[in-house]
Amino acid sequence: MMDRKEFLSMLGLSAGALTIAACMGGSVAAPNVDFTLDLSQSANAALNTNGGYVYSNGVIVAKTTSGAIIAVSASCTHEGTSVQYQSSNNRFYCPNHGATFSNSGSVTQGPANTALKQYTVTVTGNVVQVKG
Ligand code: FES
Is the dihedral of CA 57, 63, 64, 69 positive or negative? Predict the structure, then answer.
């Protein structure tokens, strides 16, 4: 039978293992961001057209067919490929294995099983702020 000290030291070991697992999970988390895009700059011109999209700071920023600007994390939650925006289907699409996500980032088709992170978008004149 193990004594109290041995038991406590075993607990310490498993707590450490849990910490390591939590850190590994954190390394693939979507980034926290707070940036702006100037729609008058050519690099962001795609956002002046419904259906257009750009990548910035690990985020895909897209303009829907109804003209709303939306933003989600760009890396597919399956294996990290950059997703694309398909405005005709109102969805984000991963060209690697075909996962699809709604405009708010929810999984609508696997193999991904975790949502893309959705960011808050505020448009003021020509300036788009993406935050989250
Ligand atoms: S990397 Fe996106 S579906 Fe596999």
Answer: positive
